[in-house]
Amino acid sequence: MKKSLSALSLALLLAGCQSLGGGEPEQDNPVTNAEAPLTAEPVDQGNDNDEQEAQEVVPAPAKDVWERIARQMTLEVPDNQRVNKFRKWYKANPRHIEIISERADPYLYLIVEEVEKRGLPIELALLPVVESSFDAFAYSHGAAAGLWQFTSPMGKHFGLQQNWWYDGRRDVAASTRAAMDMMEYLYNKLDHNWLYALAAYNTGEGRVFRAIKRNKAKGKPTDFWSLDLPSETERYVPQLLAVADVIRNAEEYGLDLKPVPNAPRLKEIDAGSQIDLALAADMADMSVADLHKLNPGYNRWATAPDGPHTLLLPLDKADGFITALSDTASTERVNWLRYKIKPGDSLGVIAKKYHTRIGIIQSVNGIDGNMIRAGQHLLIPVAAKDPELYPFSAEQRLARKQSKKRANYKIEHTVKSGDSLWTIARANKVKVSQLASWNSLAPKDTIRPGQKLVIWVNRISKNEDKTSVMRQISYKVRSGDSLARIAKKFNVTVTDLVRWNQLDAKKYLQPGQKMTLYVDVTKISS
Questions:
Q1: Which among 206, 153, 148 is positioned nearest to 179, based on CA atoms?
Q2: What is the C-alpha to C-alpha distance for residues 452 and 431, in angstroms, rounded to an integer?
Q3: Is the pLDDT of residue 356 over 90?
Q4: Is 131 a catalytic residue?
Q5: Contact 471, 518 (CB under 8 A)
Q6: Residue 107 needs a FRET pair 20 to 30 A away by CA distance; which of 65, 85, 115, 422 works?
Q7: Could you say which of 76, 131, 234, 464 is catalytic?
């Protein structure tokens, strides 16, 4: 669809879509500007000498963005079981709507502006309700991230950068533009049918194409409601339509939508070079947490060295930030540490110590390979403040997630070569989905040796108590060892040893064989 397509043309086009059943548009035609006037036709009362001028009917400006959205809805909401199920759920769970209203507050105006600018159905602005419940830090079981839940490959395809410093899938402004690019692409590919496009956004255009082709071959209807699609997709589109209906009729349904001012709230500013988020927050007279919440795309304590360097700031903070930025040279926007290499140092050890990556140290210092010499000096970019003062960095978000109590005991597991989420979960009798969730991962994510995972369990051995201090240890089998002897030494059971190490209890242990144990270090036999 061309971006110049007017909202009125779009409404007429949608009215003819097979998937919409030829439904009539709203009584008031949608307009790209929510506050634009609607003009009534002149009224002819049959008196040539008493002509009346056309009267202009000007609706009151939308009070907030929710009302602005409700006025422009064009997609038909059918009365069917799938839609009714979600409508009923939203009506029965008003707190969920309240939470969504609160989360959407900073971003909703920006999103609506982007949708209207392109002349797209305003209902697309509600997709984050279904995708992420408007949680900009959302990460799903399918390894999708951000408000619009882009997977990594799809995000890259639509121009969203992803690296150690930055994940464009969580950048609200960038991901909103990418999501609308994707919706336009799908609409054009799928017969200019918005329900097809929405379904494809969830499950991929190939599946939708194949479902249409199958129905055509069998002489069946090919509207969305007749297609055989994955169950998640068959729920996805009805859920969005139900959300639209609930938003449009919130007052009638007794639901409380937190008002979102119908005015610009944020300004996108390009700092022009890498900048420490703590420094940027000081320049904008904000807390680091408040700044980072508006800019969740940044994984670390600063914008990415090679960009982007854009920041979303509250409108009333923007001018002060711009002034302070202009008075600060680009070389002063990140702190640099001059580090003298010590005997025994490695790039990995140094990178870990200063919360950075080996590649960054190599790049900054022009190092090829991993060889360094004691006595040399390295320049290392470092955070201006303690890492804990960047509460929305990837490290701090992971630390909070891993610390949240899920069961009686927390086991810390260091990933070894050959480990997978499945093998670790099986060894500890937990679900892969649980293990992934506790560690901010998706079940299909790859883990790497040295990575730290937490495992929450209610029981580790028969002898644990509430004062136990559980640790993961590595044990090398000695000559004369047996499962029973090792179990007694570490106050665990043979069954646990077999389970933790996927052993065959009937086979003898071999000297030098390595085993992983989860033990109460306060009860190890001497």
A1: 148
A2: 18
A3: no
A4: yes
A5: yes
A6: 85
A7: 131
